[in-house]
Amino acid sequence: MRILLFLAIAHLSAIAWAGGYAGCLERVMFFQAYEIDGLLPTGQSIGYWCLKWISQRNICKAGQWRACNGDLEGGRCTFEQFMKQIHPDTPNPQQWPVYEDDPKAKPGAKPKLDVKETALNCLKAHRAANEDIVDIAPYRVMKGGGNGYGAAVKELGRRVDSRWQALTAVAKIENRPAFTVFDNAVDEIIRARRGDTGKRMYDAAMQLELDENVTIKAEDLGPNPDPDETDPAKKEWKEVNWPETTNLAVEHGIEDAENKLRQWVRTYIFNDPSATTHRNMMKKFKEVVTGRNLCR
Known about the structure:
The chain is mainly alpha-helical. It has helices at residues 2-8, 20-37, 79-86, 115-128, 149-166, 169-205, 207-211, 242-251, 257-270, 275-295; strands at 48-50, 53-54, 59-60, 65-67, 218-223, 236-240. The strands form three sheets. It has a two-stranded antiparallel sheet with strand order 1-4. It has a two-stranded antiparallel sheet with strand order 2-3.
């Protein structure tokens, strides 16, 4: 049982860089959390940045946190202004947002961000400007944020859930679309991180078919939304379905199948020094999903 559990979560150990499409999705996620945080007039903590970050001590000097100062009512920031706070050289963020056409929306209601299309516009803008999609420093987007991105993601989910719990019953009904956008972003980030890297692990695992006569079963993760991807093998995201692969190997009578597959996964992870870090990052996003399921 423990072996099967290990293999069932093996996809969490795939290398999962936050660059590209996933990095853009994470920007949308943080902005939507900022929007949710602003639903209540007190206790706001997202959209704050540290005036003087002391990296050696991982603290904000004298607790000098400043809220994003924008052009909207109450000094709130627009999407563009929020992205510029994440990184001053962010290319053309005013061109990123795409909003869903919701005929059921009430008059005056905020339009819902289209998570995928907005992230794709972010990706296109960075490519056009030949700019890297840099990592998000938590201390530039949330009060109390430090250098640890994984911990910040988990805390972001907790704060979003806390805002939900603080809303009245009526406010929850009115503002559920805002939480849906945040949830959509988190779900797509998980899919993108798995999709970006699962194919590499799948391709490497195909060697098992030659060496051990193991039939590799794939899990379809859906299409790669990147319109500029020209490699046909990367147009569809997939990864190894380890439980199915293991069960099939046992059924086919492959000697010590479970241990062999577990050892292969361990070796694959060991050969990449960053695998543990990225496994932990994926676990943090999973914890955000677990938290929201318990809360909402």
